[in-house]
């Protein structure tokens, strides 16, 4: 399964794409979408349009099965930040919905705990954690990339747990699948033969092949 984590912003949007089928996630691609700021694009609406176009192209190229976005978090000291984030986040959600992709909205504390073990981890701790997971030679920079990697890893964990819960009831069902008992020969007519009880087998889904990147601002793993 291919998962993309997105850390949306009006200046920099971090993204990370991982293949999550194996026991150890594989980094496909990670980087940032940098929006033009200043007098060239004076309005927020122009930047949102650019983000929508670039993010849509990214999703079309990487073809994920699921996309995860950090849930909106507002701090009482910085209320304006939440408003700005909401604009960029709305564009991301629309791009995901338009392509009928599975969406996961994750809480900030949930993301930090998934990669560091604590929901109060610092930015540096998150960077070091994802560096260790993907064996990166240096800390992922800017921090938006590290956040996107953490979001993707948290989404992988949640999807894995959901799949396990969905499969467990079938293994422990009070009414398992039954197959008819084999016909008894005359010599074994006196013996009791119970029907076989076989739990259903869960299938696997193969991830598509990794496509080469063509954008200069993408950061690849070594």
Structural write-up:
- With 222 residues, this protein is of the alpha/beta class.
- The chain has one domain (2-167): Nucleotidyltransferase, domain 5 (2-Layer Sandwich).
- Helices cover 40% and strands 18% of the residues.
- It contains five helices and eight strands.
- It has helices at residues 44-62, 79-98, 108-116, 123-133, 143-171; strands at 2-7, 12-19, 26-34, 66-70, 102-106, 178-179, 196-197, 218-219.
- The strands form two sheets. Strands 5-4-1-2-3-8 form a six-stranded mixed beta sheet. It has a two-stranded antiparallel ribbon with strand order 6-7.
- The chain is globular, with a radius of gyration of 23 Å.
- The chain starts with a strand and ends with a strand.
Describe what is shown at a glance.
The protein is α/β, with parallel strands linked by helices. Helices cover 40% and strands 18% of the residues. A six-stranded mixed β-sheet has the order 5-4-1-2-3-8. Strands 6-7 form a two-stranded antiparallel sheet.
Q: Can you tell me the number of structural domains? A: 1
Say which CATH homologous superfamily is assigned: Ribonuclease H-like superfamily/Ribonuclease H
Which strand order does the major sheet show?
5-4-1-2-3-8
Helix segment count? 5
As a percent range, the share of helical residues equals 25-40%
N-C termini distance: 21 Å
Elements, N to C (H/E): EEEHEHEHHHEEE
Give the total of beta strands: 8
CATH top-level class: Alpha Beta
The CATH topology assignment is Nucleotidyltransferase, domain 5
Shape: globular
- CATH second-level architecture: 2-Layer Sandwich
Quote the beta fraction.
15-25%
Content-based structural category = alpha/beta
